[in-house]
Amino acid sequence: MSRIFDALQRSGTEQSGVEYPDMMSVASAVFEAAPKPEAIDESVPMAVADLLAEMQPVPAQLATSQKSRQEQAPSPPFPTFPSLEVCVTPASRLVFFTQPESLAAEKFRFLGVRLRQIRQSRTLKKVLITSTIPEEGKSLVALNLAGVLARRKERVLLIDGDLRRPVQAEHLGLGTLSGLSEWLQGESQTPSNIYHLSGIGLWIMPAGHPPVNPLELMQSGRLSALMQQLNDSFDWIIVDSPPLLPLADTTVWARLADGTLLVTREGTTQKGTLQRGLEMIKKSDLLGVVLNGSSDTDHEDYYRRYSPPESK
Question: What is the pTM of this model?
Answer without folding.
Answer: 0.75
